[in-house]
């Protein structure tokens, strides 16, 4: 404790002498000018500190672990460079803003000798911290994405776990109360919510983020790396694969990450299942962008509104996700086949725009994104088991792990079937063996009704037997717990069969009521 006080006093005296030498009237030291026991003052200081540093005439960095015996010149750099690189100052969370915010940052040894400043040492500082030179030279920080700015603090440490989040507030132009004791995870969640709130980029992502997302890490990394990579025009990417392989979930994760990592990027989700759903999605985009005419029902008007949307999106950075591009056309005719070329006419043409398509058709994928196709197959047995474990409400016992291997094989390692199974097991508290037994019964009735179940699926594109069986079993469990809930599902299926297959409900009901598959 005495040594810490001695070091603090030495730092205080150095700062006083240097400020006087530079003819400054006041100086401020964070460690002794903030009442850490006053929560309001501490929180206010944390939210103001970046601006204080930015407005400072000079910022002194006193490196107590860097020693220089004589006044430093360029020829003597070897005397201090090794200890300078290894200084603990570069590992602390709070010193990040001390380095970036001020126009003038000067470095001094423990003897009070000047080593250099942020300008003369910029290359060395860049090497040590991996912070871009432009940021060290005080360019506008909004030139860097949110994720990149957050990465600058990745290898830094703080005494209080929450401070590794709070030290980013100024860098991200975010203000929020400091709540010590909430933990790093809670602080990070609040920060991300604030980032979303201050964003000027309008977005529509109709589905929440899947916290159990697993199994497509290589494809996710490839998609993120390719976003906005086309330097001549719009970057187009296609995720292709059979139904149930997780195309939409992968696109959803990319969408949420893009929104999280770059608050200036608008993200819009377009339901491209049918021509009407596509226009309805564009109407929502138009409403979000305050484009007049978004509530018109006339087809010609909607085409014009869509073109206005495209023109508006062309002027901003944006990511569009066209989900389920399997059976649509933007032509005025009634063709039931996909016209991918006409769809491309409704995309913003700009290097600042990226578009992701999800489709079951390799032909469509090649037409829309010939250079950037991500093909999804069924999961490996190991990844499927990991997905199941992540989706269940409680851990698997050793016996259940063995049983789950057989169940996953029955589910053909399809992600959507695995998620359905996990949700049903967790809600019903069935054992793995009980679920497998029930699934066999529902597989048989799904097989009998298979033609009807696929009647509303465009081009028979992919409600595979395991997926239909897990859905049927889930519906049966819902009816067992709450029959009225199934009535509501029937009503929803009658209103819009795209989301809920009416025949699937009927098939499941017949089985749960004891009817035989051939009893129509």
From TrEMBL:
What Pfam families does the record tag this protein with?
HET, NB-ARC
UniProt feature coiled coil, ranges: none
Domain AAA+ ATPase intervals: 233-380
Could you tell me which SMART domains the record lists for this protein? AAA
The Gene Ontology terms for molecular function here are:
ADP binding
User: Any transmembrane segments, and where?
Assistant: none
Q: Which PANTHER family match?
A: HET DOMAIN-CONTAINING PROTEIN, HET-DOMAIN-CONTAINING PROTEIN
What is this protein called in UniProt? AAA+ ATPase domain-containing protein
In which organism is this protein found? Cochliobolus sativus
Q: Highest lineage ranks of the organism?
A: Eukaryota, Fungi, Dikarya, Ascomycota, Pezizomycotina
């Amino acid at each position: 404790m005495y040594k810490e006080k001695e070091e603090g006093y030495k730092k205080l005296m150095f700062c006083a002498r240097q400020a006087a030498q530079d003819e400054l009237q006041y100086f401020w030291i964070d460690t002794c000018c903030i009442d850490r026991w006053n929560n309001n003052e501490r929180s206010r200081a944390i939210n103001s500190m970046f601006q204080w540093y930015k407005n400072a005439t000079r910022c002194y960095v006193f490196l107590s672990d860097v020693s220089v015996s004589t006044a430093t010149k360029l020829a003597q750099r070897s005397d201090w460079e090794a200890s300078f690189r290894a200084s603990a100052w570069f590992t602390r969370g709070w010193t990040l803003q001390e380095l970036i915010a001020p126009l003038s940052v000067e470095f001094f040894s423990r003897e009070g000798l000047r080593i250099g400043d942020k300008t003369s040492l910029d290359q060395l500082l860049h090497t040590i911290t991996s912070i871009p030179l432009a940021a060290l030279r005080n360019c506008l920080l909004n030139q860097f994405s949110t994720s990149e700015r957050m990465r600058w603090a990745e290898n830094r440490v703080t005494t209080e776990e929450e401070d590794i989040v709070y030290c980013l507030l100024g860098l991200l132009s975010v203000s929020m109360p400091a709540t010590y004791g909430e933990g790093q995870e809670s602080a990070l969640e609040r920060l991300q919510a604030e980032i979303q709130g201050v964003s000027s980029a309008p977005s529509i992502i109709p589905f929440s983020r899947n916290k159990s997302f697993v199994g497509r890490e290589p494809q996710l990394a490839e998609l993120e790396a390719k976003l906005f990579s086309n330097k001549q025009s719009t970057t187009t990417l296609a995720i292709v694969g059979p139904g149930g392989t997780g195309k939409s979930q992968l696109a959803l994760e990319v969408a949420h990450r893009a929104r999280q990592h770059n608050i200036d990027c608008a993200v819009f989700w377009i339901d491209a299942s049918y021509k009407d759903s596509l226009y309805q999605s564009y109407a929502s985009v138009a409403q979000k962008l305050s484009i007049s005419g978004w509530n018109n029902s006339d087809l010609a008007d909607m085409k014009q509104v869509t073109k206005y949307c495209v023109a508006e999106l062309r002027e901003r950075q944006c990511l569009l996700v066209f989900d389920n591009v399997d059976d649509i056309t933007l032509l005025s005719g009634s063709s039931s086949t996909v016209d991918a070329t006409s769809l491309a006419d409704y995309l913003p043409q700009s290097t600042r725009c990226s578009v992701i398509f999800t489709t079951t058709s390799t032909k469509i994928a090649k037409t829309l994104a010939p250079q950037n196709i991500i093909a999804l197959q069924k999961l490996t047995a190991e990844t499927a088991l990991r997905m199941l474990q992540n989706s269940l409400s409680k851990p698997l016992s050793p016996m259940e792990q063995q049983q789950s291997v057989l169940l996953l094989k029955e589910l053909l390692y399809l992600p959507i079937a695995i998620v359905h199974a996990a949700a049903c097991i967790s809600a019903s508290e069935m054992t793995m063996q009980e679920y497998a037994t029930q699934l066999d019964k529902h597989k048989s009735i799904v097989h009998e009704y298979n033609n009807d179940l696929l009647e509303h699926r465009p081009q028979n594109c992919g409600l595979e037997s395991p997926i239909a069986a897990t859905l049927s079993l889930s519906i049966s469990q819902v009816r067992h717990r709450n029959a009225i809930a199934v009535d509501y599902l029937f009503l929803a299926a009658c209103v819009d069969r795209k989301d809920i297959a009416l025949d699937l409900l009927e098939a499941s009901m017949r089985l749960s009521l004891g009817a035989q598959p051939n009893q129509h």
